[in-house]
Write a structure and sequence with these properties.
Number of helices: 14
Helix content: over 70%
Order of helices and strands: HHHHHHHHHHHHHH
Number of strands: 0
Strand content: under 5%
Number of domains: 1
Radius of gyration: 19 Å
Length: about 350
């Protein structure tokens, strides 16, 4: 969620967890995060995008922050709040807001597939930032596959009459992935205990609070609050928003952070290619979104690209440190979740 998933501060590690508990945690990460694209699509039918995202993250951030403080996690410093505000701006106020806005016109399944190209941006940005981090041939192949998948999915010349994709909305999603990658790299570079708290969940709560506050301001500047009438919102939309805040931003996140402590990064990273498949199937089954050969083909290409990139990078990390998983590799897995 925050791009930083090292253990500590409020979510205790477990030793030798029961297999059913591990399976339940993976189920939460796969199904809850896979379903949040559908939930966003349903919510923005009645909520203005900025209003919905602001309420979601302010409520979830406040809930998580209060829980962690009650558990004894130290109060963040002003320096840590400044860093969290910048990261929250990139991850939530830019990236998540772009995805939420785009889902007014882009089907939830296609949104999930486009969001799956995040590892492509991560590879390219890290290579630009540090030329010694040159990707392997297999990773470059994954990057090219990811780009090809996006072209197949949204290329106007490849679409039939009923398959047209809103290019502006799709462009917002791709740009949102870029800002998410930037925020993730910035977050991973923070030193725990200095510019960032030692507790990864606390850092996440701070990012949700700061990002949510910026989204609330954006909603005000856009005139959304003046048109917002809570009584006019249906119970279904309110329940969907509650699901996003409690299940998507708190419960699934807790399961994810716990899995990083008890499982391997390679296994936990499988959410990156399971979530799009779950989202596409749910969009088709519940919302009646089109499941064309083009969508299935693009999904297969992009998911393959993500598998290649994540497995190759996990393998490279394991070769560098065969006896222990570096915290930086754990943080590398965390950027995608909160986009849902």
């Amino acid at each position: 969620m925050s791009g930083r998933a090292e253990s500590g501060g409020g979510l205790p590690a477990a030793h030798g967890p029961h297999p059913l508990r591990v399976a339940a945690a993976f189920g939460a990460v796969y199904l809850i995060w896979g379903s949040t694209y559908l939930a966003i699509r349903v919510a923005v039918e009645e909520f203005a995008p900025f209003v919905m995202a602001a309420i979601r993250f302010l409520a979830a951030g406040a809930l998580l922050y209060a829980f962690l403080r009650l558990r004894g996690v130290p109060r963040p410093t002003l320096r840590q709040w400044k860093h969290a505000s910048l990261v929250g701006f990139l991850l939530l106020s830019c990236s998540n807001a772009a995805v939420t806005w785009a889902e007014r016109s882009v089907p939830s399944g296609l949104t999930a597939v486009l969001c799956a190209i995040l590892p492509v941006w991560m590879v390219l940005l890290e290579w630009l930032r540090d030329r010694t981090q040159r990707p392997s041939l297999a990773v470059l192949l994954g990057v090219l596959l990811g780009i090809l998948g996006v072209v197949v999915l949204i290329g106007p010349g490849l679409a039939t009459t009923g398959e047209k994709v809103d290019l502006f909305g799709a462009g917002l999603i791709v740009a949102g992935c870029l800002t998410w990658a930037l925020g993730s790299i910035l977050s991973r570079g923070a030193k725990a205990g200095e510019s960032a708290p030692k507790s990864s969940p606390m850092a996440t709560a701070m990012q949700m609070l700061s990002g949510g506050a910026i989204l609330a301001l954006a909603a005000a500047l856009n005139g959304d609050w003046g048109e917002f009438d809570p009584a006019a919102i249906s119970p279904k939309a309110w329940l969907t928003l509650a699901y996003l805040g409690v299940f998507g931003s708190v419960i699934a996140l807790s399961a994810y952070v716990w899995l990083l402590q008890v499982s391997t990064p390679a296994r936990v990273s499988t959410y990156a290619y399971v979530n799009p498949v779950v989202a596409v199937l749910l969009g088709w089954a519940i919302l009646g979104e089109e499941l064309s050969a083009r969508t299935l083909g693009a999904t297969a290409i992009i998911v393959t690209a993500v598998v290649v990139i994540t497995t190759q990078r996990s393998r490279a990390s394991a070769e560098k440190s065969p006896t222990a998983v570096p915290s930086s590799d754990k943080r590398e897995l965390a950027p995608t979740p909160i986009k849902r």
